[in-house]
Amino acid sequence: MPTPPRGALIIGGGIGGLAAALALHRSGWRVQVLEQAAEFTEVGAGLSIQPNALRALDALALGDQVRARAVTDAPVGTRRADGAWLIRNDVDRLTRRYGPWATLHRADLLDLLRRALPSEVLRPGIEVHRVHPDGTVEHTGGTSTADVVVGADGLHSATRRSLWPDAPAPRYAGYTTFRMITPARPVEGSVESWGQGDRFGYAPLADGRVYCYAMVTAAQDGTGGLADLRRRLAGWHNPIPALLDSVEPDAVLRHDTYELPDLNTYVADRVALLGDAAHAMTPNLGQGAGQALEDAVVLARSLEAARTGDSTIVQALRSYDRARRPRTQMIARRSRQLGAMAGQTRPPVAAARDAALRMAPASVFVRSMHPVVGWTG
Ligand SMILES: Cc1cc2nc3c(=O)[nH]c(=O)nc-3n(C[C@H](O)[C@H](O)[C@H](O)COP(=O)(O)OP(=O)(O)OC[C@H]3O[C@@H](n4cnc5c(N)ncnc54)[C@H](O)[C@@H]3O)c2cc1C
After folding, report:
1. Which residues pair with 123 in a beta bridge?
2. How far is the CA of 276 from the centre of ligand 1 (A)?
């Protein structure tokens, strides 16, 4: 009699959880996704999917569909608040070396991931309370057990709280992030601009609308909405004031920015953390979702040997941890360092930063991206 497929429970139906579910489903696991929200919906805004993340999506057989819904140009560069160029990328060279970048609406990516899964895999409206190392999961629908449990339940992960009770809490990064989508208008490509403590970025979406974000140095739990942002960036170069003027206040998402201090391991017996639950990072490099996608691909690959009986699940998860922890923690560190440089508040230091960036040859920036976007699996 053939052995029944092994079962995996995924906690959380965000980008990481759905990607893990898809990767495991494709490699023959019986999968269920427990999601606390009543529906698998996404408000969100835009998302930058860099070449490494696109390669992970290719491994999930979704790369072409993502490219079809996205603008696939490499970032044009970084400007000063007055518009002077600090970094001007050689877009063709970047694309030749690493492949395309993609910008799309976050809801589009989630939609593609969801549609690729059989609907019975998705179990919305179930909140997980507690996870045990033997694969038992307590939730609002009762108790479930699985051969492997994937905690993809985000920054405030209940999986992490259950099994890593001594892990330090997420820490405030010192800035708040605004995200918004403007009505359609032409912009020259994906550009980020740096002032002294504030940053603003914009990137076109495939339907002509423009995804915008701002990072503003501010106290934790501070107030201040679109009107405050418009005031702070009033003298910045075009088209920033016009983009901000075109947004409705209730279309703006504002979140304080947190990152998770490094964990010593992402796995405990039959349970693995994935995505933000394992390594929530600052958004400066635009890599959080990309790393969750890479995690999903590597997790399924590591577990392949356990599905076919060549190794135990515990061994397979250890191999996932060895493959993913150094890389994701390196990227989280780089993202933090970039945030410290880009969000510099002291005028003389910001001026020195700008002068150094303007003198550096473009090849320096191409090379510096390699450890992050050069991932090939
Ligand atoms: C401002 C900002 C901009 C960003 N821009 C980019 C970008 O351009 N590119 C990029 O790659 N990344 C970006 N990121 C990072 C990216 O958004 C995250 O890294 C990514 O969404 C993490 O996905 P996840 O599935 O791990 O977690 P989440 O998206 O947080 O999903 C977790 C899911 O688990 C569910 N859940 C939580 N607790 C429970 C529970 N107890 N029981 C059941 N379900 C539960 C939640 O409802 C949610 O659906 C950005 C982040 C921010 C804050």
Report:
1. 34
2. 6
Contacts of 134 (CB under 8 A, 6+ apart): 145, 269, 270
Residue 243 domain flag = no
Regarding the beta carbon of 344 and ligand 1, being less than 6 Å apart is answered no
Report yes or no on 332 lying in a domain.
Answer: yes
Residue identified by tokens 């001594």 is 166
State the pLDDT at residue 5: 72
Report residues of the chain scoring pLDDT below 70.
1-4
Q: How far is the CA of 58 from the centre of ligand 1 (A)?
A: 20
In a domain, residue 180? The reply is: no
- The residue range of the domain holding 106 is 7-74+102-168+261-341
Positive or negative, the Cα torsion across 281, 287, 288, 293?
negative
**Cβ atoms of 331 and 287 closer than 8 Å:** yes
Q: How many domains does the chain have?
A: 1
Cα(153) to centroid(ligand 1), Å: 8
In-domain check, residue 147: yes
The structure tokens listed for 372 are 């992050």
Ligand 1 lined by 256 (C-beta under 6 Å): no
- Residue 42 in contact with ligand 1 by CB distance below 6 A: no
Report the nearest-CA residue for atom 29 of ligand 1: 14
Structure tokens at 88: 């001007």
Average per-residue pLDDT for the chain: 94
At 16, which CATH number?
3.50.50.60
Answer positive or negative: Cα dihedral of 100, 87, 215, 233: negative
pLDDT 10s digits, 18-35: 999 999 999 999 999 999
Exposed, middle or buried, 132 (CB in 10 Å: 0-12/13-18/19+)? middle
Contacts of 4 (CB under 8 A, 6+ apart): 30
Nearest to 207 by CA among 65, 71, 64: 71
